[in-house]
Structure formats: structure tokens, C-alpha cells
Amino acid sequence: MSTAYWCVLIAAILPYVWVAVAKMRPGYNNRNPRAWVARSDNYVVQRANAAHLNAFENFAPFAAGVVLAQLAGVDPATVNPLAIAFVVFRVLHGVLYVGDKPLPRSLAWLGGFACSVALIVLAAQAAGR
């Protein structure tokens, strides 16, 4: 199960990767970073910030799914590949978001979401036995 736990850590760090991409743009102002992002007309700033927010939104269900699966005794051989797939989908999602590729980005989002749902469903099934 430690692989899945490492994936939770990676997923927890991902939002900060995307916001770092946004803040590396010229003119970044740390006095009021949210206002700076809101005023920015820089394409990369806006898209990286959106990826940052979306990464936070998707972290909680994934982390809960991993913890619930572990508590319910789901086989790590099932949990670990789902956790790895989630991280891969989420990295792709951010890259595609910044790169303005809406359809593949949405498919990457769907893949990550499906992994989170699968983990929770597997936990519920295991707990019901």
C-alpha cells in the first residue's frame, strides 16, 4: 500500500506545481498574488492557476479513496495501480490545461475521477463483505 501513499503525497504537491508555473511569469507580485492572478491577461498564468485550483478540488476524493480502500482491506495490488493512474491522469490534466487542449484535458480529468470513484467503490464493496 505504500505506493498508493506516495501517490497521495504527489497528488498533494501537484497544486503547488501548477501555481508555481503561474507565478514564474513576468510581473508576479507577491504582495497580493490572488489579485495579480485575477488581473493578469497572461494566458499561462490564467490556465496554470485554473489547473492549480482543479488539482485541489480533485485531491480530497482521491486521498479519501486511498484511505478508505486501505481501511476496508482492499488488495494493494488493486489499489496501487489505480493510485498511480490517478497521478498520471492528474499530471496530464495540468499539462493539457496549461497547453489549452480542452478535449484531452477533460478526458484526463475523467480518468482521474474514475480512479477516485473506483477506489471508493472498491472500499465500499470490501467493507460490505
From TrEMBL:
Q: Which UniProt keywords apply?
A: Membrane, Transmembrane, Transmembrane helix
Task: Give the primary localization class.
Answer: membrane
GO CC: one term? Answer: membrane
Q: A Pfam family this protein belongs to?
A: MAPEG
The record's annotation in InterPro entries points to:
MAPEG-like_dom_sf (IPR023352), Membr-assoc_MAPEG (IPR001129)
Q: Where in the cell is it found?
A: Membrane
Task: Please report the name of this protein according to its UniProt entry.
Answer: Membrane protein
Organism of origin: Stenotrophomonas acidaminiphila
